[in-house]
Amino acid sequence: MVRDLLVPGFINITEQKGRVQIFWSEEQLLVFFKGYDKDGDGRLTKDEAKAAFDKLGSRFSTFRTWRARCHADTNSKDRSILNVNDLVKYALKRGYKL
């Protein structure tokens, strides 16, 4: 998994069955997804979102991108573009680990 965005002070650690799990924080995910925003407008295309979910370790990044679009704010007329904040909320629900 991705471990290079570990920011001190923003770590959520849990212990389950004797194993320590470190979950992404909201701030870490926001920085992570903004890193995939090529034009800096705060929105990701399907391809950018898919690449981000690949890097997060998702086995089914195309499916995750589609589900994120389903969970995202539907006020946007262009459903192929995803708001970074909506992606962060979705990824937090999925519980990605560092």
Summarize the structure.
The protein contains 4 helices and 4 strands. It is α+β, with helices and mostly antiparallel strands.
Order of helices and strands: EEHEHHEH
Spatial sequence of strands, sheet with the most strands: 1-2
According to CATH, what is the class? Mainly Alpha
- Assigned CATH superfamily: EF-hand
Oligomer classification: single chain
What average pLDDT do the residues reach? 80
Fraction of residues in helices?
40-55%
Total domain count:
1
Give the helix tally.
4
Distance between the termini: 6 Å
Note the overall shape: elongated
Radius of gyration: 14 Å
Characterise the protein shown here.
- It is a single chain.
- The chain is α+β, with helices and mostly antiparallel strands and 98 residues long.
- The protein has one domain: EF-hand (Recoverin, domain 1).
- The protein is built from 4 helices and 4 strands.
- The strands form 2 sheets. Strands 1-2 form a two-stranded antiparallel ribbon.
- Helix 2 packs across helix 3.
- The termini are close together.
- This is EF-hand domain-containing protein.
- InterPro entries: EF-hand-dom_pair, EF_hand_dom.
- GO terms for molecular function: calcium ion binding.
Write the layout of secondary structure elements.
Layout: E1 12-16, E2 19-23, H1 26-34, E3 43-45, H2 46-56, H3 61-71, E4 81-83, H4 84-94
Antiparallel strand pairs: 1-2, 3-4
Helix pairs in contact: 1-4, 2-3
Pfam family, one: EF-hand_6
InterPro entries: EF-hand-dom_pair, EF_hand_dom
GO molecular function: calcium ion binding
